[in-house]
Design brief:
The complex is a heterodimer of chains A (337) and B (574). Chain A is an alpha/beta fold. Helices cover 24% and strands 23% of the residues of chain A. Chain A has a seven-stranded mixed sheet with strand order 7-8-9-10-11-18-19, with helices on one face. A six-stranded mixed sheet of chain A has the order 1-2-3-4-5-6. In chain A, α7 (270-275) links the parallel β16 and β17 (279-281). The longest helix of chain A has 17 residues, at 158-174. Chain B has 574 residues and is of the alpha+beta class. In chain B, 38% of the residues lie in helices and 22% in strands. Chain B has 20 helices and 22 strands. In chain B, a hairpin with a 2-residue loop joins β5 (293-306) and β6. In chain B, α5 crosses α6 (99-109). The relative contact order of chain B is 0.10. The chains are: A alpha/beta (337), B alpha+beta (574). At the A-B interface, α7 and α9 of A face α5 and α6 of B. The complex binds zinc ion (ZN).
C-alpha cells in the first residue's frame, strides 16, 4: 500500500511518488488539481514558481476555469481517460460529476493503486462530463470526500430537483416576481442555468460567474439564453448570484422577488431564516451519505480514507460494519503517520 | 395536496399546513393560510388545531406534560431506524441543530424506518389521546413503546411536529399565539380584539376557539368566584433586562400564591393550580368578609406572619392542605394575605390595563378596605436591584420580583414581563430524580434522594434534568410518609435499592455552599444539601436551572453580603 500523508491545510501527499493531491506545497514533483474550486487550487504560488521541477496537472476544462480565476502558473492539461506515465506511476483521470472538469485521479504504482475522488457526485451533476470509475480494476486505496456523510442527507433525483427549480421559477414569474437563485458562481450557477435552459426568459448571472459560462458552453453544456447581470434590465429575468451578492446590493432595487437557496445545506430548515430565502432547494454537487456508502461498498477498497466530513465516526462506523477498513484523514490537523 | 381519503381534521393535513406556514414568508400570508385551513374544520376541530398551533399537545392551563425527555425520544428514534444512538444519531443532531428535524430526516431516509411505516390517517383528537397516553404512562420503556407506535402511523413530517407538540413549546415556524388568534378571527369572522380578550380571560386557545366558532364569545367574561390562570414569572437572566427603569421591584414573599375573590361577605381563595383553598384559611375569609368588598379579585401571597415578621415557608406548610384548621394551629401559625395585583374591580376586569394603572387602583382599594399590599420600589440600575435584593433577603424573603410597568396581566403565561430574582445562595428548587431505600429506622422505604436541576434549555446537555446533589434528611416523619407515597406513583425503573423517578416531586433544597466539581455531570456539587421543604405546590417547570446554580456560585464568589437595615416589604395602609 502507498503511504498517504495529510499536510495541514496543504492537501494530501503521496510521499513515495512525490505527488500532491489538491496540494499547496512545493515539496513534491507532481500536483494534481481535481477541479477549479478555490479550496482545491494550489495557493502557495510563489514557492510553486520557484520550484522548477514541478508539474501541475488538471483536465482541460479545469485548466481553463483556473486561468479565468487568475491562476497564472503552467498547467499540464491531462484529458480524461488518457494515462500519464512516469518512471514511478501511471495517472489516469476519470470524470467526478461534481462541476465541469472535475476529475478523480487513479494512480497506479508498483506498490498498489489509489483512487482520489476530489469532490465528486454520483449520479453526476447534469452540467458535467458525468461520473465514471476505472474499469476492471480493483481499487486498493480510496480517498473520498464525505461532505454530506450523515444519513440525514439523501438527495432527490436530478429530475425532481430540476422540476423543483423550474416550477419555482415559473410560479414566481407568472405571479410577477423575479426569481433569484442563490448558489456559488462556479458550478452551481451553471448547473441551475442548464437545468432551467428551456425557460424562455433571459438568465442574468453575477459578474463573477459570467465569464465561466463560456467554458461550459465550449464543452457542450447548454445554458440557454443568458447574459451578465445588468441592474437596469434584471427585473423579470432569472437571476443567479452567490449569497454574498445579495449582501452587496445584487437585485436590491427589485421589490417583487423570490429567492431560492440551492445547496445541499438547504436540507436544513435553519437555512430558511439564515438566508432569508423563500424556498430551499437541496441541490447538491456532492454525493449524499447513501451514495457514498454504496460507492465504497461497490469498490471494496482495501482501505478507505475519509476527508471533509461533519463527523467522521458515522461513515467509519458504517463502513466498518460492512467489513471495510476505513480511516479518517483530518485535513485540519497535523499528520501522525 | 388534499387527498380525498383525508378528512379535514387529519393530523397529516395539520402538519402539512404547519410546514407550509413555516415555508411562507410574511405574517399576513401565514395568517391567511391558517385561516383558510380553519375554515374547513368543525368547531371542535378548530379548538384542537389552535391548541396544537399555539400551546402544544396539552392546553397550557392544564399544566399537563408528556414528560418525555429528549434522550428518551432520541434513543427510541435511533432504535426505530436501526442506527447507533451515540455514534450516528448524536452526530446528525449536532449537524442539523434540531433533534426533531433530525428525526424527520432519518425517518425519511432510512429504509428500516420506512418499512415500519403505515399511515394511519389519525385525526387531531386521536393525536391528543396519544399524547395523553404518553403523559399517563410511567416508565421510559413504556413511553418509548408508545412513541414507536405513533411514529409507525405518521409521516416523518407529522412525526417532527408531533414531537414538537410534546415539548409544549414553540413549533418554531414563526407563528405565535397572536397569529393563531388572528387566523381564528379571520376564519370565524369575529373581531380580533374581542377574541384577544376572550383568550386573556380563558387563558386557553382551545376554549377561545370554541367560543368563537359557536358565537359565544360574549360568554368569555370574568366571573367572580371562578379562578383564572395566574401570570407567572420567568427567572432573571443577565440579558433579560435592557432598561431597568421599565420595571418596578417587589420583594418575593416566601409564601403561597393566592387569588382572592371577594364580594360583600363572600370570599373565595384559589391556589396556583386553581384549586379552592378557602376552607384552609378561615381567618382570611372572616377578615376579608367583614370588609364587605365590592366585586374584587386580588392576586397575592399568603404568608405566616408572627411577631411582625414573615415566617419561613416551612411554617406555612403546617397550614397548607389542612382543611378547617384547629384553633391551636390558627394561633401558632397565623397568616396574612398580601395583595400585589388587582384583576377585577366593580364589574370590570383590569387585566388589560398596565401594571401602573392596576397598582393605582390596588392602592386605592387597599386604603379603603385596609389590607396589606406589597411595597413597590422603582429601580433604575442593577446596583439598585442588588441593594433591594439584599433588603428582601434580610426580611427572610426569597428574593425580588421585577415587573414591567407597562405590561398587562398575562394570564397563564410565563414571560419576561415578570422576572424573579432569587436568593443568591442557600436554597434552590430541585426535583427528585432517584430515591434509594435506606436501612435502619427507615429500612425498606426511600430515605435518600438524588435531586436534579433543569438543563432543558441548556445546549450542553440533552437531558431535561441532571443531578446536582444527594440529600438524606431535613424532612419530618409526616413529610417522609407523604413522600414515600408520592414516590410509588413516579417510579420509572428500579436498580436494586434505587428507584428512578419521573421528575415530578419538587424539593426546595438548602445547602451551605456551591462547589465546582469537574467530576460530576453538572460540574458543581452542593455542600451539605438538605430538604428545606417539599414543594407540592410547584411543578417540575419551576425547578431551577443549572444556569441559575452557576449564577449563584459566581455571585457568591464575587461578593460578600452583609445584612441591611430592615424596611417594609409590604404596607398596611392606615
Ligand atoms: Zn468543489
Amino acid at each position: 500500500m502507498l503511504k498517504v500523508k495529510k499536510a495541514r491545510y496543504h492537501g494530501i501527499k503521496l510521499p513515495e511518488l512525490s505527488i500532491g493531491l489538491d496540494y499547496s506545497n512545493a515539496d513534491v514533483q507532481h500536483i494534481f488539481v481535481s477541479h477549479a474550486h478555490a479550496d482545491h487550487i494550489p495557493r502557495n504560488r510563489t514557492s510553486l514558481r520557484e520550484h522548477t521541477n514541478l508539474a501541475i496537472y488538471a483536465t482541460p476544462p479545469t485548466a481553463a476555469l483556473m486561468r479565468l480565476r487568475g491562476f497564472k502558473e503552467d498547467i499540464i492539461e491531462l484529458p480524461f481517460f488518457e494515462p500519464l506515465t512516469t518512471d514511478h506511476f501511471t495517472m489516469t483521470l476519470y470524470p467526478a460529476g461534481h462541476i465541469l472538469g472535475s476529475a478523480m485521479a487513479f494512480i497506479e504504482s508498483g506498490v498498489g493503486n489509489i483512487l482520489y475522488t476530489g469532490d465528486c457526485k454520483t449520479p453526476a451533476s447534469p452540467a458535467t462530463e458525468g461520473f465514471e470509475l476505472p474499469k476492471d480494476r480493483q481499487v486498493d486505496q480510496l480517498i473520498i470526500e464525505a461532505t454530506f456523510g450523515l444519513p440525514i442527507y439523501r438527495w432527490k433525483s436530478n429530475e425532481e430537483l430540476q422540476s423543483d427549480l423550474v416550477s419555482f421559477a415559473r410560479q414566481a414569474l407568472d405571479e410577477g416576481y423575479t426569481p433569484i437563485f442563490l448558489g456559488y458562481n462556479l458550478g452551481k450557477a451553471q448547473e441551475m442555468m442548464h437545468m432551467l435552459r428551456e425557460l424562455p426568459e433571459t438568465k442574468q448571472i453575477h459578474g463573477g460567474g459570467y465569464p465561466l459560462c463560456a467554458v461550459y458552453e465550449k464543452y457542450g453544456i447548454d445554458l440557454g439564453p443568458y447574459e451578465r447581470y445588468n441592474r437596469a434590465s434584471s427585473e423579470g429575468c432569472l437571476l443567479f448570484t452567490p449569497n454574498s451578492g445579495l449582501e452587496s446590493g445584487f437585485a436590491s432595487h427589485i421589490k417583487k422577488k423570490r429567492i431560492a437557496y440551492c445547496s445541499g445545506w438547504a436540507s436544513h430548515e435553519a437555512r430558511r431564516t439564515q438566508t432569508q430565502a423563500h424556498a430551499l432547494i437541496p441541490l447538491s454537487d456532492h454525493l449524499d451519505y447513501f451514495e457514498l456508502i454504496n460507492l465504497c461498498e461497490h469498490l471494496q477498497p482495501k482501505r478507505t480514507y475519509i476527508t471533509h466530513t461533519p463527523d467522521p465516526k458515522v461513515v467509519l462506523h458504517e463502513l466498518q460494519q460492512r467489513g471495510l477498513d476505513a480511516v479518517y484523514l483530518d485535513m485540519m490537523h497535523e499528520e501522525l503517520d | 395536496m388534499h387527498n380525498k381519503q383525508e378528512a379535514a381534521d387529519n393530523f397529516e393535513l395539520w402538519a402539512r399546513l404547519v410546514q407550509n406556514i413555516a415555508e411562507t414568508r410574511g405574517s399576513n400570508a401565514k395568517v391567511e393560510l391558517c385561516a383558510n385551513y380553519f375554515a374547513h374544520l368543525a368547531p371542535s376541530e378548530v379548538s384542537l388545531a389552535c391548541q396544537f398551533m399555539g400551546e402544544g399537545a396539552f392546553s397550557t392551563i392544564s399544566g399537563k406534560r408528556a414528560s418525555v425527555g429528549a434522550r428518551t425520544i432520541g434513543v427510541a428514534a435511533a432504535d426505530y431506524c436501526g442506527i447507533d444512538y451515540d455514534i450516528v444519531f448524536k452526530a446528525c443532531r449536532t449537524a442539523n441543530g434540531s433533534s426533531t428535524e433530525t428525526i424527520q430526516r432519518l425517518f425519511e431516509n432510512l429504509p428500516e424506518a420506512r418499512q415500519k411505516n403505515t399511515l394511519q390517517h389519525w385525526n387531531l383528537a386521536r393525536i391528543s389521546e396519544l399524547a395523553e397516553e404518553l403523559a399517563q404512562t410511567r416508565g421510559r420503556k413504556d413511553k418509548q413503546r408508545i412513541l414507536t407506535r405513533v411514529w409507525g402511523g405518521l409521516s416523518p413530517l407529522a412525526t417532527k411536529y408531533f414531537l414538537r407538540l410534546l415539548s409544549q413549546g414553540s413549533l418554531r415556524i414563526g407563528f405565535e399565539r397572536r397569529s393563531v388568534l388572528q387566523a381564528l378571527a379571520r376564519s370565524s369572522q369575529v373581531d380580533y380584539e374581542q377574541l384577544r380578550y376572550a383568550h386573556m380571560l380563558t387563558g386557553s386557545l382551545a376554549k377561545t376557539a370554541e367560543l368563537a366558532c359557536t358565537n359565544r364569545l360574549d360568554q368569555a367574561q370574568f366571573k367572580l368566584f371562578n379562578p383564572i390562570a395566574f401570570m407567572l414569572a420567568a427567572p432573571l437572566h443577565s440579558r433579560s433586562v435592557e432598561h431597568w427603569h421599565d420595571f418596578i421591584a417587589e420583594e418575593k414573599f416566601d409564601g403561597m400564591r393566592c387569588q382572592l375573590h371577594a364580594h360583600g361577605p363572600k370570599v373565595e381563595l384559589f391556589s396556583r393550580d386553581l384549586n379552592a383553598i378557602t376552607n384552609q384559611f378561615p381567618e382570611l375569609v372572616e377578615l376579608f368578609g367583614k370588609k364587605e368588598f365590592p366585586p374584587t379579585v386580588i392576586d397575592g401571597e399568603i404568608c405566616v406572619y408572627r411577631d411582625q415578621t414573615i415566617q419561613p415557608f416551612q411554617e406555612l406548610q403546617k397550614r397548607m392542605g389542612v382543611k378547617k384548621p384547629s384553633k391551636t394551629l390558627l394561633r401558632e401559625y397565623p397568616v396574612v394575605f398580601i395583595g400585589y395585583d388587582l384583576l377585577y374591580l366593580n364589574q370590570k376586569e383590569t387585566v388589560s390595563q398596565s401594571l401602573t394603572q392596576r397598582r393605582i387602583s390596588l392602592e386605592n382599594i387597599a386604603k379603603t378596605y385596609k389590607f396589606p399590599i406589597s411595597t413597590q420600589h422603582s429601580v433604575d440600575s442593577k446596583d439598585q436591584v442588588d441593594q433591594l435584593f439584599e433588603q428582601a433577603l434580610a426580611h427572610g424573603n426569597e428574593g425580588l420580583m421585577l415587573k414591567e410597568k407597562e405590561a398587562p396581566y398575562s394570564f397563564g403565561e410565563r414571560n419576561n414581563h415578570w422576572l424573579k430574582v432569587k436568593r443568591p445562595s442557600g436554597s434552590i428548587d430541585t426535583v427528585i430524580l432517584y430515591a434509594q431505600a435506606g436501612s435502619g429506622k427507615r429500612g425498606g422505604s426511600y430515605s435518600d434522594f438524588t435531586l436534579g436541576v433543569s438543563v432543558k434549555e441548556d445546549p450542553r446537555y440533552e437531558e431535561e434534568f441532571i443531578p446536582i446533589g444527594k440529600a438524606y434528611g431535613g424532612y419530618t416523619d409526616q413529610e417522609w410518609k407523604e413522600l414515600n407515597k408520592a414516590i410509588k406513583g413516579c417510579i420509572i425503573d428500579r436498580f436494586g435499592p434505587t428507584a428512578q423517578l419521573r421528575p415530578e416531586i419538587v424539593v426546595e433544597l438548602e445547602f451551605e455552599a456551591i462547589q465546582p466539581n469537574p467530576r460530576t455531570k453538572a460540574k458543581y456539587t452542593l455542600r451539605f444539601p438538605r430538604f428545606k421543604a417539599i414543594r407540592w405546590d410547584l411543578s417540575p417547570q419551576d425547578v431551577d436551572s443549572l444556569d441559575h446554580v452557576e449564577m449563584l456560585f459566581n455571585e457568591h464568589q464575587s461578593k460578600e453580603r452583609s445584612p441591611q437595615k430592615s424596611s417594609q416589604s409590604f404596607l398596611i395602609p392606615d
